[in-house]
Amino acid sequence: MAVTGLTMGLILTSPQPASAANLVKNPGFETAGTDGMPYCWEKSGWGDNDFTFTSTSDAHTGGKAMKVELTRRVDGDRKALITESASCAPVVTPGKQYDLSLWYKSTTPDTAITLFRHDASAGWQYWTDLRTLDMSAGWTQASVRTPEVPSGTDMITWGVSVYGTGSVTTDDYTMEQVADPLPPAQCTGTTDQCANGSWSVLPTQNPVRSMHSVVLNNGKVLLIAGSGNSEENFAAGTFTSAVYDPSNGSYKVIPTPKDMFCAGHVQLQDGRVLVMSGNKAYPVAGGHGYEGFKDSYIFDPKTESYTKTNDLNDGHWYPSATELGNGDVISFGGLREDSTGSVTAEYWSDAEQQWLPLWKVNQTWSYWGLYPSMVLMQDGRLFYSGSHVFGNNIPGTGSAIYDYGANTITQVPGLQNKDERDQSASVLLPPAQDQKVLTIGGGNIDSNPDANRLTDIIDLKQADPQYVAGPPLPQGTVDLGNGPVAETGNQGKMYVSAVLMPDGKVLETGGGLHNRADPVYEASVFDPDTSTFDPVAADPEARGYHSSAFLLPDGRIMATGDNPGNGTWNHNVSIYSPPYLFKGSRPTITSVIDNEWTYGTTQRITVDRPIAKAELIRPAAVTHSSDPNQRFVDLPLSVDGNNVDLNVTSNPNLAPPGWYMLFAVDARGVPSVAKWVHLQGPAALSADTAAAHVHSFADSLQGSTSTPGKKRTSQKVSPTISGCDRHYGSANVCVPTVFPPTVKKTTAARCVWLAANDYGRLKVNGKDDPLGLDPDKDGVACGKGDVRTRR
Questions:
Q1: Which of 228, 275, 348, 517 could form a disulfide with 329 if both were Cys (CB 3.0 to 4.6 A apart)?
Q2: Cα–Cα distance for residue pair 648/700, rounded to 1 Å
Q3: Phi, psi at 452, each rounded to 5°
Q4: CA nearest to 329, candidates 286, 289, 273
C-alpha cells in the first residue's frame, strides 16, 4: 500500500504529456503546477471584475476540474488558459484545422471558447472566439473546429472565457488535427481561367445610369440612378432605379420619387434599404456647387417601391451610412442644401423607424468630407479609414477613431499620402473577427496627380493601432486616349472597387489614373493571410467614376457603370467568375434548419460533402468605391458527418443585424451558392442569451483626442470640389480644373486632351474663361479660332 501510494503521488505531481492523438498536455488538470494552477495552465483575463480560480474535486473524470467564477463585473473576462510556452502550448501547422473539445458546467450564458496564437515574428496574440457555451447544470460536452491556422503560426493556446457573473467548471480538454478532407483541386477550365478567373460582358445593358448598387435579400440587385448625373434628366424630373434579377438577366425599371443621384444607402435589419439625401441642384458656373436635400426614403424589396421617411436634420449630398450593432444607422458628411459642407451627424433609430431630432444626436460639429468610410469596430466605435471622395482628407493624420458614446475623435497615424486617398477603397478584411482594415489606392481630384499604388493595413486589435504600409498595387494598362499602354513608375489608380469573396480573399478591380479620365485595366486578389496581391484577369470594360463592383449570391462578381468627364455613360455590365469557380464541383448547402438566427447561438446546416469553413457575408450597398458595411464574419464549425453546427458570434458589432449571405466553403476554397439567413437584432435576445464578448482592442490610443467643437452651421466648401470647372459645357460634363500633369498648360495642349477624351463641343458658360480655352471669345471652347489664336 505504501508503494502504491508513492506511485500514485508521482503520477499526480509529475508533468503528464499529451496523448498521441490529444495535443493538450494535462487535459484533466490532474497534474499540479505552480501558483495554485495545474501544470501547463495559467490564469488569464483583463478588466474590472472580481474573480476566483479554483481547482475543484467536482470533476467530469478523475479527481480535478477547473472552476472560474466572476462575482462582480464591469468589463473584461477571466479564463483558465493553456500556458503560453513552448513546453505547454500545442504545436500547429499553418493551413491545417483542429477539433477542440471539452466538458463543462456553467451558471452563466456569458462564456466563449477563446483562442490565442503564437506568431513566429509578432509573438502571442488574440486569434478568435469560437463558440458560446449554453448554460448547463450537468456535465456537457462542447466541440468546435478552428479556422485554418494562419501563416506564420507555430503554436496556439485556448480556454473558456467567462465575461458575465457566474461560473464555468471545465474538464477533459482534447485537441486533434483534422484530416485533409479532399484531394487537391483539379482545374475544370482553361489554365488561364483556373489561375486568373474570367470576365464576360452581359448581352443586355443596364437600362439606367446607376451609380448605387444594393444586393437585396431576395438575390436581386437594386440599381439607383436618380438623374444619373444628367442635367437633362434632372430638368425633366426623370429619376430612375432598376431591379436586376441575376437568375434570368432581366431588369425592371422602378419609379423613383426624387433625384437620388449621389445619395447614401444602407440595408436595415429587416432587409429594406434606407436611402438618404441626394441631389437638390446641379452646380452653376460662378455660383453654388452641388446641393443636397433633406429627404429620405425606404425601398422595400417585397413591393419594389419607395416610401418616404421623415426628413434628415440637414442636407447631405454624398453622405456616409453605417449600421450599428443595435440596428440603428449613423451618417456623416456631404453637402447641405446651400452646397456648403454638412457638420451635422444624423442618427436613424431602428426602434422608432425615423431620423432622430438634432437635440437627441451627439454632435462634434466636425466636417468629415464626402462619403467618409466609417467602419464599425467590435466595441461599437467607428474607424474612419481615410477613404473619401473629392479633394483633401480631414485635418490631422487623415484617419481617426470616433467614439459616439464619449463623443470624442482620436487621430490614428500611419496613412500614407493622406491627401491623395480620394476615391480609394477601404474594406474590413476577412474575417471581421480579425479587425484589420485595408485601404487601397487613390488620388486627388483637386490637384489631379497620377493616382497612386499605395495600400495601408491597420490592425485594430492593437492597443494603439497604426496604419502600416501594405504591398503596392499591381500595375496594369492605362488608356491615355490612344489605346492601352503599360503603367509606369508609381502609377496606380483611383475609383477602386474592393469586393469580399467567399474564399476569404478580396478582389480589387476597376479604376482610373486621373479625375474621370484614363481608365486603368487591372485587377488582383488580396490574400489577408499572406498580405499579398495576385494579379488576375482584368475587366474588359472601363470602370472609373460612378462604377460599382459587388458580390452576387452565386459567388460571381458584377461590375457596372463608368462616367468619364465627357458626360457619357457605360451601360455594359461585366461579370467576373473567380478562379474558385474553375476548381471542380461546388459544395451544396442542402438544408438550413432555421434561417432566423440570434447572437451567441449554434445553427445547424447540412451539406453534401465536407467543408472547411462557413461564413456570413453582408450584401453590398456600394457607391463611389465606398461600402463601409461590407464584412465577412467567420462561423466556426462543429462537424458531425454532413451535419454542421455553425457558431454565431455573440457580438452584434461584429455582425450587425440584418440579412446575410451564408456560404459553405470546401478545403480547396470552392464556395457553395449562398443561402440567405436573417441575423436578428439585440431586441430578439432573451434574458439568458449571451451578452456581447467585447475585447480590449484599441484601448490605449496615443493620438491626439478632440472633444466637440463650437456649434456651427456648416463648413465652407469650394463649388469646384468635384474637380470640374463648370464654366464649360453642361453640368454633367467635367472639364478638369487641373489637367493631368502630362498636359502642358497651353490652350492647344488642353484642347488636344479634351478632343482625345471625346468632350465634343463645349459651350462657355458666361463671360469667364479661367482655363483659357476660348481665346477668340466666340463662346465655344477649343474652336478652330481658339487653337489658332493661342498655342
A1: 348
A2: 29
A3: -105, 175
A4: 273
